[in-house]
Specification:
Blueprint lengths: L8 E2 L2 E2 L9 E4 L4 E4 L4 E6 L7 E3 L8 E6 L3 E7 L6 E7 L3 E8 L7 E10 L4 E8 L2 H4 L1 E10 L2 E6 L2 E6 L6 E3 L5 E8 L4 E9 L10 H15 L9 H13 L30 E2 H13 L4 H17 L6 E2 L10 E2 L11 E2 L10 H15 L5 H17 L16 H16 L7 H20 L21 H5 L7 H14 E2 L2 E2 L9 H4 L2 E2 H13 L3 H12 L11 E3 L4 E3 L5 H13 L8
Antiparallel strand pairs: 1-2, 3-4, 4-5, 5-6, 5-7, 7-12, 8-9, 9-10, 10-11, 11-18, 12-17, 13-14, 14-15, 15-18, 16-17, 19-20, 21-22, 23-24, 25-26, 26-27
């Protein structure tokens, strides 16, 4: 049974969940904040991505942090170029006011530092502020509040220490349990006011940080971290995609698949999952994408994390891990309402799955690193482990790219063939292995063709399932089979005819349901289709696919996994890293004729 806590309320306003397209992301590599249109921090897990949430109104919890105009207002916002510094912007009856928002970057694994700078543009601004942290998804409210110094307040929420500085007026207790702090700030025209919130699993040391120094350091760190990406189409969006990937990547090198959990892909259908973990496949997609765009930093991070998992777990490498390489906990419910249409679920069952394609994707990542002269002896040993695993386990049914009932999925085996060809062709491959890996790739393609070639000449999903699948467009892009062979062309032609509508793409058919009723358009597949058309030399078609799917986002430019075409709404967890990765790869590849590098 699920209890229903009251929506966080402040000044007569409630902070119930909003449509996903209206949210922005702050991230520092170790955690993320989901920012709503009323200046509410609706989601943040602390101290790490997979920790319990301290702000959780997004899924019906009570924790929230709000800075919002007192006056009637209309919302907007934008990212500062090449950063995850967000500017909430409100046009009020009195004028324009902004709140500059960021997590201090790069992040400390033990402490989140949240920066908020209120800027009154033309007229005096009156701002309403509420701080109501509730650890463990709302179980542990703020307690032990005390004044540490002028404008500085401290307390605890469960095991988390809280320090809040910049309180120009004394905050007063608020909320039904007196577990929040609220105040009203007046900022004169042309002036600004800083608030700094620290939340972590260790007590803050020393004096409160200087906000000017934090802002300077954060700006400089983002400008250093994000490359210019001058040789891309849609450069601003390409750089934003890169900043999202960087913001989701921890110091360990692991990149979480998303910042959130349990945001529904389809209302009331139970398809909502916890993606606050590192999926090996998704990280490999991102590593390959940034390499195409000319970056090596996130490529190196991906290689470091994936190589470590191969060395530690070998042929039993799991499909996903926590950012520090631990096993993902099983699913549990939170006794919260969840996001409307969804459930209150954390944890994930993926650790118990075998996904053969993850080993192929790992080889593609490592081979890409080798081509860029970024693979050391440790990385080559990881490649040998992955290749040996494919040799031993390619005959076993696996859950596949979509994590379904185990079968001999065609995509999984073709992905492995692509990975084997990639490392075999790279300079530095271990002696004697090149011929072995090439022969194994040939055998995988031949065996898959014997079992999974449709009578029409295209690839089909598995020996038992004759249907089409968007994932089957990927192997030719990665070199498993040639772009100009009949099977490749027949598969792309059939896929576009049968599983796409109006330049939106779907994964596969769910029984006899119409495409748009079974699930949302799958943005990853839309960008993959753009790449497939580009590989065939159909540039106009490629750009149509790219632009159609590039626009499937909200004002912040964030992509979720699925897009509800009819309602023009985002569906699923936010932001979805692999969608941003494929968008970035498209932006880099579409500048020139197709190249295998």
């Amino acid at each position: 049974m699920t209890s229903t806590p009251p929506d966080a309320e402040h000044g007569g306003r409630t902070f119930a969940p909003q449509p996903l397209r209206q949210y922005a992301l702050l991230a520092d590599g170790e955690r993320g904040v989901i920012v709503g249109p009323r200046g509410e921090y609706a989601w943040m897990c602390a101290p790490r991505w997979d920790s319990d949430a301290v702000f959780s109104t997004l899924v019906g919890g009570t924790g929230v942090y709000v800075v919002t105009p007192v006056a009637r207002c209309v919302w907007g916002g934008y990212y500062e170029e090449g950063t995850l510094i967000w500017r909430s912007r409100w046009v009020t009856d009195d004028g324009i006011v902004e709140c500059r928002e960021a997590l201090a970057f790069p992040g400390d694994p033990h402490r989140a530092v949240l920066l908020r700078r209120i800027v009154a543009r033309h007229n005096t601004a009156r701002m309403s502020v509420l701080l109501q942290p509730c650890a463990a998804f709302g179980r542990y409210p703020l307690r032990g509040v005390s004044r540490e110094a002028d404008g500085v307040w401290t307390g605890r929420a469960g095991d988390l220490s809280v320090r809040w500085s910049g309180c120009a007026v004394e905050p007063r207790p608020t909320g039904p349990r007196g577990d929040g702090l609220t105040m009203e700030l007046t900022v004169e025209a042309g002036a600004c006011h800083d608030l700094v919130l620290e939340i972590g699993d260790r007590r803050p040391a020393g004096d409160p940080p200087d906000p000017d120094a934090l802002w300077r350091a954060t700006e400089e760190a983002w400008h250093t971290a994000v490359p210019p990406l001058g040789n891309t189409v849609a450069r601003t969006d390409a750089r934003r995609a890169y900043t999202i990937l960087r913001g989701l990547t921890a110091a360990s090198g692991g990149m979480v698949a998303s910042a959130t959990t349990s945001l529904p892909e389809r209302a009331e259908e139970g398809r909502n999952y916890d993606y606050r973990y590192v999926w090996i496949r998704d990280q490999c997609y991102a590593g390959q994408a940034v390499a195409v765009a000319g970056d090596t930093k996130l490529l190196d991070d991906a290689v470091r994390f994936v190589s470590a998992r191969l060395h530690e777990d070998g042929p039993r490498m799991a499909p996903a891990y926590t950012v520090d390489g631990r096993t993902i906990p099983g699913e549990r419910e939170l006794d919260l309402p969840g996001y409307p249409g969804g459930f209150d679920r954390v944890g994930n069952k993926v650790s118990g799955q075998f996904q053969l394609d993850a080993f192929g994707e790992a080889l593609l990542l490592l081979g890409t690193a080798a081509r860029h002269d970024r693979l050391d002896a440790d990385g080559w040993r990881a490649a040998v482990i992955a290749a040996d695993t494919i040799a031993r386990r390619h005959g076993e049914p696996d859950a596949g790219v979509w994590e379904l009932r185990p079968r001999l999925w065609a995509h999984s085996r073709l992905a492995c063939a692509a990975g084997l060809r990639c490392v075999a062709a790279a300079a530095g491959a271990p002696g004697g292995r090149t011929a072995e890996w090439t022969a194994l790739a040939d055998r995988l393609v031949a065996d898959t063709a014997a079992r999974c070639l449709h009578p029409s000449g295209r690839w089909q999903r598995s020996p038992e399932d004759t249907g089409l699948d968007g994932a089957l467009l990927l192997p030719p892009l990665r070199g498993a089979v040639p772009a100009d062979e009949p099977r490749t062309r027949a598969t792309l032609r059939a896929y576009v005819d049968e599983l796409t509508e109006d330049h939106f793409a779907y994964r596969f058919r769910h029984g006899g349901q119409p495409l748009e009723e079974a699930e949302g358009a799958f943005l990853l597949c839309g960008f993959v289709t753009a790449l497939a058309e580009h590989q065939q030399g159909r540039e106009t078609a490629a750009f149509r696919w790219f632009e159609r799917n590039r626009a499937a986002c909200g004002p912040a430019g964030l992509y979720s996994e699925e897009y509800d075409v009819a309602q023009r709404q985002l569906r699923g967890n936010l932001p979805q890293a692999f969608v941003h990765a494929l968008m970035l790869e498209c932006a880099a590849r579409l500048t020139d004729p197709w190249s295998e590098t």
